[in-house]
Amino acid sequence: MFSKLVHIAGSLACAGITALIGGFLTTGLISLLVDGICSWLGIPINFMETWAGSIVFALSLFVWGGIGYLLGNVLQSAVDSFFNRQAE
Predict the structure, then answer these.
(1) Which of 9, 46, 61, 65 suits 17 as a labelling partner, its CA being 20 to 30 A distant?
(2) How far apart are CA 77 and CA 74, in angstroms?
(3) What mean pLDDT is predicted for residues 28-52?
(4) Angstrom distance (rounded) from CA 15 to CA 7
(5) How many other CB atoms are there within 10 angstroms of residue 68's CB atom?
(6) pLDDT tens, 12-37?
(7) H-helix or E-strand spanning residue 70
(8) 43 backbone dihedrals φ, ψ, rounded to 5°
(9) Chain center to CA of 60
(10) Cβ atoms 48, 27 nearer than 8 A
C-alpha cells in the first residue's frame, strides 16, 4: 500500500514539475510568436492578456501535466524493475 502511494506521489510530482516547466516555455514561445507577428503587422497586442492566451496557458499546462504523469509512471516502473532485479 505504501509503495503504491509513493508511486502515485512520484508520478504527480513529475507531472507538476513537467507541467510548470513545459507550460511556461510553450506559452512563452507561442506568446512571443503571436506578439512578434502582430507587431510586424502593426497590431498592438499583448497575447497573454487576451482570452486566447489564458486558454493556451491552461491547455499547455494540461498537456504537459499529462506527459509528465506518463513520464513519471515510466520512470517509477523502470526504477522498480531495476531494484527488483538487484534484489534477486
Answers:
(1) 46
(2) 5
(3) 89
(4) 12
(5) 23
(6) 888 889 998 998 899 889 989 998 99
(7) helix 51-87
(8) -100, 115
(9) 7
(10) yes
Distances (CA, A) of 5 to 8, 43, 80: 5, 51, 14
**Residue 54 vs residues 17, 27, 28, 34, 46: alpha-carbon distances, Å:** 20, 9, 12, 14, 12
* All three cell numbers of 40: 510586424
Percent of the chain with pLDDT over 90: 20
SS3 state of residue 1 = coil
Instruction: Look at the block and give the residue holding cell 531495476.
Output: 82
Cβ within 8 Å of residue 48, ≥6 positions away: 27, 31, 54, 57
- Across 22-55, b (16+ Cβ under 10 Å) vs e yields bbeebbeebbeebbeeeeeeeeeeebbeeeebee
C-alpha cell at 7: 508511486
Type of residue found at 31 = S
